[in-house]
């Protein structure tokens, strides 16, 4: 689906017109994948748009940059404020938000250090990521023949542009073979995650998800689901998952900002559970979406309202994001 344009993009401190948000062809990141970025959603609430877990996303952006040796020339608070400003300036009710920190135009050796650190924030409307029926009916997926990056190759904990070469290979293989998404194993053969979302499964009422050591991105949605599952007093097991557990699970679902909570109804043409959205998946999904859209009390302080003249920073509990 072509990207839906919006009036303004924030670039290095200024709101510029969408069409003018351009970079030079010799920008370092374009050649070597030297960027870190975020994917965030703003949901429409009765009080106007609210950005979901904005500060946590921006904090992860800073951790990603730190891992990649990039010093962002702004504070976390400044990027949080710039994000709110960009959502507000574009007068959108609901949108996807894409902050990008990249190495700009200066030199083209592999050595990134001489290149400036540039920052951009774009927002645009983005609906259901895995198709419009996916949230209710679930998706058909395959286990990819591509593995996630081994721990000593690329930093899975960083949301780094270069890592998405691996994600693209997983996604392309799935699409070419008629599946909505691929599940990658880690370099040891244990279940890792989808090309752009974390994975959960349910077996006999227990919620399982792979640990950070399985080359996963520490997802903000993953952490939100773990929090909601703990609220519901569901038993949680964060541990290595052998591939075959996927085939005998009662329920499997993806969790990610774009994907939200999407049930998986078959894996490698084998039906998961009853082949419909599972009961625990549905409970977690509806709780997640109800809080995000402000239909239920924001008991964990996850929403940053955009409507007010100066969106006040929300008071948040101190529990760290997994992997922080
Ligand atoms: N894994 C990968 C590889 C991703 O790209 C994403 C999307 N950012 C996720 C997991 C889910 O992370 P989050 O819930 O923070 O969006």
Notable characteristics:
324 residues, alpha+beta, D-amino Acid Aminotransferase, Chain A, domain 2, eight-stranded antiparallel sheet, globular, disordered C terminus, binds 4'-deoxy-4'-aminopyridoxal-5'-phosphate
Indicate the topology.
Layout: E1 8-11, E2 14-17, H1 28-32, E3 35-37, E4 40-45, E5 48-52, H2 54-67, H3 76-89, E6 95-103, E7 117-124, H4 134-137, E8 139-143, H5 164-176, E9 181-185, E10 191-194, E11 198-203, E12 206-209, H6 220-231, E13 236-238, H7 243-248, E14 251-256, E15 260-267, E16 270-271, H8 279-292, E17 303-305
Parallel strand pairs: 8-9, 8-15, 12-13
Antiparallel strand pairs: 1-2, 1-7, 3-6, 4-5, 4-6, 5-17, 6-7, 9-10, 11-12, 11-14, 14-15, 15-16
Helix pairs in contact: 2-3
Bound molecules: 4'-deoxy-4'-aminopyridoxal-5'-phosphate.
């Amino acid at each position: 689906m072509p990207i839906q344009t919006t009036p303004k993009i924030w670039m290095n401190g200024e709101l510029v017109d969408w069409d003018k948000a351009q970079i030079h062809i010799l920008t370092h990141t374009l050649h070597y994948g030297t960027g870190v970025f975020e994917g965030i959603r703003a949901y429409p609430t009765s009080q106007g748009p609210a950005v979901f877990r904005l500060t946590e996303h921006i904090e992860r952006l800073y951790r990603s940059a730190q891992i990649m040796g990039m010093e962002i020339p702004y504070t976390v608070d400044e990027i949080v404020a710039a994000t709110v400003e960009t959502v507000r300036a574009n007068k959108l009710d609901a949108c996807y938000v894409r902050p990008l920190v990249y190495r700009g135009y200066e030199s083209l050796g592999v050595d990134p250090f001489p290149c400036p650190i540039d920052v951009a924030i774009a927002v645009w409307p983005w609906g259901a990521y895995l198709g419009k029926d996916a949230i209710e009916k679930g998706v058909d997926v395959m286990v990819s023949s591509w593995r996630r990056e081994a721990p000593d190759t690329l930093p899975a904990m960083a949301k780094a542009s270069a890592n998405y070469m691996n994600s693209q290979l997983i996604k392309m293989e799935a699409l070419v073979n008629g599946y909505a998404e691929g599940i990658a194993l880690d370099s040891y053969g244990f279940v890792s995650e989808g090309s752009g979302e974390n994975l959960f499964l349910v077996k006999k009422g227990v919620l399982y998800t792979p640990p950070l050591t399985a080359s996963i991105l520490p997802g903000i949605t993953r952490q939100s689901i773990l929090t909601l599952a703990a609220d519901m007093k569901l038993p949680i097991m964060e541990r290595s998952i052998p591939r075959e557990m996927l085939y005998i699970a009662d329920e499997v679902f993806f969790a990610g900002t774009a994907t939200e909570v999407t049930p998986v109804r078959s894996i490698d043409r084998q039906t998961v559970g009853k082949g419909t959205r599972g009961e625990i998946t549905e409970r977690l999904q509806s709780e997640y979406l109800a809080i995000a859209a402000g239909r239920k009390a924001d008991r964990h302080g996850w929403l940053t309202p955009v409507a007010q003249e100066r969106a006040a920073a929300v008071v948040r509990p101190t529990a760290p994001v997994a992997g922080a």
